[in-house]
């Protein structure tokens, strides 16, 4: 009787949704709601991340403990993006969304449970191997540390503390993909806030009880993984997709999933290899370079994380359903609006970061052990990263065009060429440009990656820039240029206010930001990109309703 009730419970949603009412692909407005939801929570996470990094900069500066911790943090982040957010979700989300559309919730949940079990088994073995061979891993990731035994030993110790985060956050990424496939973006996005909350708490309260602040941060990283996975599992249960732990089995659908994942794994590995190359080169440069690059990257990650992750995350399940349903016109509209939305915000962000890099770094991190010299070096790196900001985001917008169609091989080939270019540019730039070299090389490699992805999609007829995008893009660029000039003038006019301590410099930075925003929104109608009303509507979810007759409703904040 118990088994019969369970089967009936699993089939009930199928009869209501998959059988009686077909699941229709949502309109691009639904995707925009997802972008705004993911982006809003990502923004909250980034703000807390800045608070965390301000604390780290003031207490650790750009010294050996900071360098060791950032290398220890880079390692689990690399695997998280490689297995969790990269190749695995690129294969998992379209398959899960397709099963949900075709066979209903019961089949989709069983598929997710089988994937969860296999991923847990594989990651567990990886974690054991990582703990055993951590010295060799760090020697490969940061070869410059081997000349400094104390720094090398600290990096190994911190990496062993943070490495279990790999298991936790990759499993969390699977559950996030499940929720995203259900068009429930809130919990998956909000879970990342926990990372910053827990690490801030660890830095403040655990530091007196461990050898260094780096140890406190490392324990905070692993504890945050426990919190994130727990919150997501609860959210999945509330969404009617609670996952039961199964014994790992290599079933035919799992073989297909891993076959589809394999090219994407190489492709994601290629992308992450770009970041690893930056760390390797930075470890060979003067002490503190790893930290200087980290703080610069953190600032440019605000627009990149908010926009790139939001657009890519919200776009993939929508585009997958549209492609599966054969709605080529809808898929084309989705891609065009995602590109337009990305350019609308990344172009001014890039201009502002280039012309105001030094005051931004100074106000955010210039205190305590992070002195004027570190501020200047980090600002140069930030300007170099900002050059490639639109390309970084557009790569995340264009990649779903391949993933939604089951093509994970093409981005691999393009990514391999991008890594080769990044390595060559790093070697060419490292001595003459010092800390700017890795940042500029990464930006140029991202531009190449973006251009190649777009060219291939266009050649296949899967990317056609519509008239609205062709008209608005150059006008948005012109408005962003006007804003950059205004920000540069405002920075000069503010003079020494940005160099003061305390509240005054925060107010001065606020004036700088407000000036840029005001000029950009004034310039948009003047250039003909948007009317004033249209420009404001870009910033809020207008008319975000499901298609008439659709069984899908927009996810609410409670989800």
Summarize the structure in words.
The chain is built from 20 helices and no strands. With 559 residues, it is an all-alpha fold. Helix 2 packs parallel to helix 8 (186-205), helix 3 runs parallel beside helix 9 and helix 14 (372-387) packs parallel to helix 17 (436-459). Residues 1-29 and 541-559 have low confidence and may be disordered. The chain has helices at residues 2-19, 28-60, 64-102, 105-132, 134-141, 149-162, 164-181, 186-205, 213-238, 252-284, 289-324, 328-355, 357-365, 372-387, 389-403, 409-433, 436-459, 467-494, 503-527, 532-537. It folds into 2 domains: 26-465, no CATH class; 469-539, no CATH class.
Would you spell out the secondary-structure blueprint of this structure?
Elements: H1 2-19, H2 28-60, H3 64-102, H4 105-132, H5 134-141, H6 149-162, H7 164-181, H8 186-205, H9 213-238, H10 252-284, H11 289-324, H12 328-355, H13 357-365, H14 372-387, H15 389-403, H16 409-433, H17 436-459, H18 467-494, H19 503-527, H20 532-537
Helix pairs in contact: 2-8, 2-11, 3-4, 3-6, 3-7, 3-9, 3-10, 3-11, 4-7, 5-6, 6-9, 7-9, 8-9, 10-16, 11-12, 11-14, 11-15, 12-14, 12-15, 12-18, 13-14, 14-17, 15-17, 16-17, 18-19
């Amino acid at each position: 009787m118990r088994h019969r009730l369970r089967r009936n419970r699993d089939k009930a949603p199928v009869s209501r949704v998959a059988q009686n009412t077909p699941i229709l692909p949502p309109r691009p407005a639904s995707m925009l709601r997802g972008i705004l939801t993911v982006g809003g929570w990502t923004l909250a996470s980034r703000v807390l991340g800045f608070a965390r990094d301000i604390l780290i900069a003031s207490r650790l500066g750009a010294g050996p403990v900071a360098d060791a911790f950032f290398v220890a943090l880079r390692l689990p982040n690399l695997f998280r993006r490689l297995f969790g957010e990269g190749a695995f979700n690129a294969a998992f989300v379209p398959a899960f969304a397709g099963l949900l559309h075709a066979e209903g919730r019961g089949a989709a949940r069983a598929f997710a449970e089988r994937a969860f079990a296999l991923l847990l088994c594989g990651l567990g073995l990886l974690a054991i191997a990582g703990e055993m061979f951590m010295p060799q891993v760090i020697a490969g990731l940061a070869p410059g540390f081997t000349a400094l035994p104390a720094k090398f030993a600290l990096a190994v110790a911190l990496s062993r503390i943070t490495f279990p985060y790999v298991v936790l956050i990759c499993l969390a990424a699977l559950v996030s993909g499940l929720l995203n496939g259900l068009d429930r973006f809130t919990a998956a996005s909000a879970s990342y806030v926990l990372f910053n909350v827990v690490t801030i708490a660890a830095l403040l309260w655990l530091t007196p009880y461990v050898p260094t602040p780096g140890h406190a941060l490392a324990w905070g990283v692993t504890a945050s993984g426990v919190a994130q996975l727990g919150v997501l599992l609860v959210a999945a249960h509330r969404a009617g997709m609670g996952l039961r732990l199964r014994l790992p089995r290599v079933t035919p659908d799992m073989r297909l999933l891993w076959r589809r994942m394999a090219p994407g794994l190489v492709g994601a590995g290629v992308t992450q290899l770009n970041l690893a190359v930056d760390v390797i080169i930075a470890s060979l440069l003067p002490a503190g370079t790893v930290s200087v690059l980290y703080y610069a990257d953190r600032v440019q990650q605000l627009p990149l994380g908010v926009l790139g992750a939001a657009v890519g995350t919200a776009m993939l399940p929508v585009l997958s359903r549209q492609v599966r349903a054969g709605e080529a016109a809808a898929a084309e509209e989705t891609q065009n609006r995602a590109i337009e939305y990305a350019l609308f915000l990344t172009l001014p962000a890039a201009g502002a970061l280039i012309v105001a890099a030094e005051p931004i770094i100074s106000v955010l991190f210039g205190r305590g052990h992070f002195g004027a010299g570190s501020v200047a070096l980090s600002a140069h790196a930030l300007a170099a990263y900002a050059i490639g900001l639109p390309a970084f985001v557009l790569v995340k917008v264009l990649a779903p065009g391949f993933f939604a169609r089951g093509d994970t091989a093409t981005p691999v080939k393009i990514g391999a060429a991008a890594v080769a270019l990044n390595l060559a540019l790093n070697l060419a730039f490292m001595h003459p440009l010092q800390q700017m070299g890795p940042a500029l090389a990464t930006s140029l490699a991202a531009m190449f990656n973006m251009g190649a992805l777009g060219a291939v999609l266009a050649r296949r007829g899967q990317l056609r820039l519509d008239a609205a995008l062709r008209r608005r893009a150059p006008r948005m660029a012109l408005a962003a240029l006007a804003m950059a000039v205004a920000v540069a003038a405002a920075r000069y006019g503010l003079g020494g206010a940005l160099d003061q301590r305390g509240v005054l410099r925060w107010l001065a930075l606020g004036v700088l930001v407000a000036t840029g925003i005001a000029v950009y929104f004034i310039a948009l109608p003047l250039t003909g990109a948007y009317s004033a009303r249209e420009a404001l509507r870009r910033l809020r979810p207008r008319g975000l309703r499901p298609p008439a007759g659709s069984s899908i409703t927009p996810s609410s904040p409670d989800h």
